[in-house]
Amino acid sequence: MLEKTLAILLAAILVSANPLVDRAAPMAVVYEACTVNNTVALTFDDGPYLYMTYISDLLTQNNAKGTFFVNGNNYNCIYNDDVVASLRYTFLAGHQIASHTWSHPHLKSLNVTRITREFELVDSALESILGIHTDFLRPPYGEYNALVREIAYKESKKLIIWDFDSGDSVGEAYRQSETDYDAKIAQNPKTLLALNHETEEDTAHYLVAYVINALQTAGYKLVTVAECLGLEPYASNTGTFGTRDDTWACPRR
Ligand SMILES: *[C@@H]1O[C@H](CO)[C@@H](O)[C@H](O)[C@H]1NC(C)=O
Ligand SMILES: *[C@@H]1O[C@H](CO)[C@@H](O)[C@H](O)[C@H]1NC(C)=O
Ligand SMILES: [Zn+2]
């Protein structure tokens, strides 16, 4: 009994003397799964590229919503005229637009300044193009560390990972991705937070229609990431699109 009391006392002293415990900076919440039963969030990373409006239409035609985690300057420049148009079209169709960083780096290898810049450049683009402020961010490759989470917290971000990977960005044939989805659905999960890529032609032209049908047939509701978590899609939404000026340019790394 005495030993136990001493052990607890010692532990208490050690904890209070440990600056790492005392001064731990607050960190952004990390979500790896949806929380609202019976929902599926289909997410599409790495755009804006060529297939955003096509996927947006497919979802809309099937009474489904999706989420696009977009970069500022990856496959395309977010400020290009055609990209601005497809972002606005997809946003107005009710799909969620969120951040995937400016240039798709490995965030764990960057310092405070670079990480902050990766977040803020996309935020500023989405503010001027769509009039929204997003608080949802998917770190590239799903990679983050304590520093990334601390900065994300300061920037009012939630980090969104996934619990199912379609495999479409690592060279998997779309037929294999379909089989993977079928196997996952057969496990009867309560929810699904699924990773796909807007930049893959086969995803846009074959996989999306297939999985919408498979998931809806199994009784799932296809919603945005915000809705599958019971959260608001945007920290703010002015309802006004900005006007192009000479800051709408991409050599900004
Ligand atoms: C979700 O489903 C689980 C198990 O089926 C149940 O225990 C839980 O109460 C449900 N949650 C809600 C919010 O309906
Ligand atoms: C952060 O990294 C960049 C690029 O590697 C470097 O130029 C800059 O000096 C670094 N900043 C700090 C504060 O260390
Ligand atoms: Zn990515």
Automatic annotation (TrEMBL):
It is found in: Cell membrane. One of its GO terms (biological process) is cell wall organization. It holds the Pfam family Polysacc_deac_1. It is a lipid-anchor; GPI-anchor. GO terms for cellular component: plasma membrane; side of membrane. GO terms for molecular function: hydrolase activity, acting on carbon-nitrogen (but not peptide) bonds; metal ion binding. Keywords: Carbohydrate metabolism, Cell membrane, Cell wall biogenesis/degradation, Glycoprotein, GPI-anchor, Hydrolase, Lipoprotein, Membrane, Metal-binding, Signal. InterPro entries: Glyco_hydro/deAcase_b/a-brl, NODB_dom. Its cofactor is Co(2+). Residues 38-223 form the NodB homology domain. Residues 1-17 form the signal peptide. This is Carbohydrate esterase family 4 protein.
